[in-house]
Amino acid sequence: MKKHQGRLIAGCCMLAAILLVVIARQGSPASAQIAPQAAKPSDPQTVAINAQQAKQVSISEVTQREFSPRIDAVGYVDFDQDHFAQVSSPYSGRVREVFAKAGDNVTRGQVLFSVDSPDLAQAEATLVSAAAARAQTTQALERAKGMAQVQANAPRDLEQAISDQQTAEGNYQAARRALRIFDKSDAEIDRIASTHRVDGEWRIASPITGTVTARNVAPGDLVQPGGTPVPFDISDASSLWLVANVAEADAPLVHVGEPLAATLPALPEHPISARVDYVGSASDPATHRVTLRAVLHAPPAGLRPQMLANYRITTAAPTRHDAVPVDAVVREGTGAMVVFTTTDGLHFTRHPVQLGQLQDGYYPVLAGLPPHERIAAEGALFLSNALALQSQ
Questions:
Q1: Which distant-in-sequence residues (6+ apart) come within 8 Å of 352 by Cβ?
Q2: Is the separation of the CB atoms in 120 and 202 below 8 Å?
Q3: Are residues 140 and 165 in contact, defined by beta-carbon separation less than 8 angstroms?
Q4: 3-class secondary structure for 344-373?
Q5: Spatial contact of 247 and 289, defined as CB atoms under 8 Å apart
Q6: Could you give the CA distance from residue 379 to residue 66 in angstroms, rounded to a whole number?
Q7: Prior bond to 219 cis, omega within 30?
Q8: Could you tell me which of 315, 312, 360, 363 has the C-alpha nearest to residue 337?
Q9: Strand, coil or helix: what is 204?
Q10: How many CB atoms lie within 10 A of CB 234?
């Protein structure tokens, strides 16, 4: 038994010796096959990659492009408030008739609706009473003058008749002026005074020529001053306002006359061009935005007030700069913006750069990029991570 164990131990020792020889041969420099690795560069801002890693990086030439300083904002389309009217009744009353509907084209002075107004009825009744008193005192004055000629009355009676007639005349003229507040013409006032007919119907007309964009009244409705919604909205559809709200920091850059381009989600295939004609002098305390607008004459078909819009305002003439695509820029944890340049596609150098506003997928390079360089257009983030690992 002991003899068998001795043979087993000797066999194991021989097998171990053979394995050591094999391992020693495989580990010799002549038989080693280690993949070549790029040497660590001496410049701490340069990272080296091998050919396999280079397949993840796209190289491109730095080109020049025109960049227009501009501001982006959001807003909406609105009625041209210079050609827009909300028509209501200055006095309370019940609607008798409605003469127009939404979508109708109306002219200035055209009657939109009529109201049975107690205030108008009272004014008409006052006119009728004043007209009667005026006629009576005029006749009394004529009689007093006739009697005075034959000395049939005292001078005091003539003076009283004159005073009464002047008072009645003043009341009559005041009653006429009161009816003019209700847009009654002189002919209508004369008719009321002569016929002694009190109607109380107030016919309310459009103050402008335009289109009825909203009608919120029907016969029998009670209307009151300041009530909402107003009975009629009238607008001139030949012009609209493009209203934009820009950030407070951008507002000083915008001036009257600068070009404005609008795109609407509702009309994506119809970009609109106009020019800024008003910049607000105050900022909204709730949104901290400044309102600006442009008047759009002859708006395209389908454009309607209160549609949402995106605006782009060009604030200066275009300038040419070196341009780098957005994928070539890495924002580091410190906030620095960097790009990587190369001469051979295997060694990349980090360059902090100063960039302008992103436009159409490209950044203008204002400073920091050496001239006549090729850059990593894609894979810049990979290079940034590789440089960070290299520096550890």
A1: 336, 337, 338, 368
A2: yes
A3: yes
A4: CCCEEEEEECEECCCECCEEEEEECCCCCC
A5: yes
A6: 25
A7: no
A8: 363
A9: strand
A10: 26
Residue among 97, 233, 110 at smallest CA distance from 183: 110
Sheet order of strands, 308-314 included: 267-275, 259-264, 308-314, 70-79, 239-247, 289-297, 278-283
Joined tokens for residue 200 = 């109380």
User: Which tokens in the block code for residue 218?
Assistant: 């029907």
Rounded Cα distance, 363 and 348, in Å:
20
CA 149 to chain centre: 81
Tell me the two tokens of residue 135: 């006629």
Task: List the one residue out of 85, 304, 307 whose CA is nearest residue 212.
Answer: 85
- Residue whose entry in the numeric block shows the structure tokens 């980090």: 350
Within 10 A of 196 (CB to CB), how many other CB atoms are there? 13
pLDDT tens per residue, the chain (392 residues)?
Answer: 444 444 444 444 454 444 444 444 454 443 333 334 444 556 788 999 988 888 889 999 898 998 888 899 999 999 999 999 999 988 889 999 999 999 999 999 999 999 998 888 888 899 888 888 888 888 888 877 777 777 777 777 777 888 888 898 899 899 999 888 888 888 888 888 888 888 888 889 999 999 999 999 999 999 988 888 999 999 988 899 999 999 999 999 999 999 999 999 999 888 899 999 999 999 999 999 999 999 999 888 889 999 999 999 998 888 899 999 999 999 988 889 999 999 998 999 999 999 988 888 999 999 999 888 899 988 889 999 888 888 77
Between CA 101 and CA 219 the distance in angstroms is 12
Cβ proximity of 209 and 107 under 8 Å? yes
Residues in the chain: 392
> Counting Cβ atoms within 10 Å, is residue 44 exposed (0-12), middle (13-18) or buried (19+)?
exposed
Compute CA distances 282 → 64, 77, 230, 250, 256, whole Å.
39, 20, 29, 13, 15
- The single residue listed with the structure tokens 């409705």 is 221
Q: Is residue 80 within 8 Å of residue 202, measured between CB atoms?
A: no
Q: Which two tokens stand for residue 361?
A: 């997928």
* Residue 104 tokens, joined: 């109708």
Torsion over CA: 305, 311, 315, 318 (sign): negative
Q: Which residue has the tokens 């609407």?
A: 264
First-to-final CA distance of the chain: 61
Question: Residue 341 corresponds to which tokens in the numbers above?
Answer: 């340049």
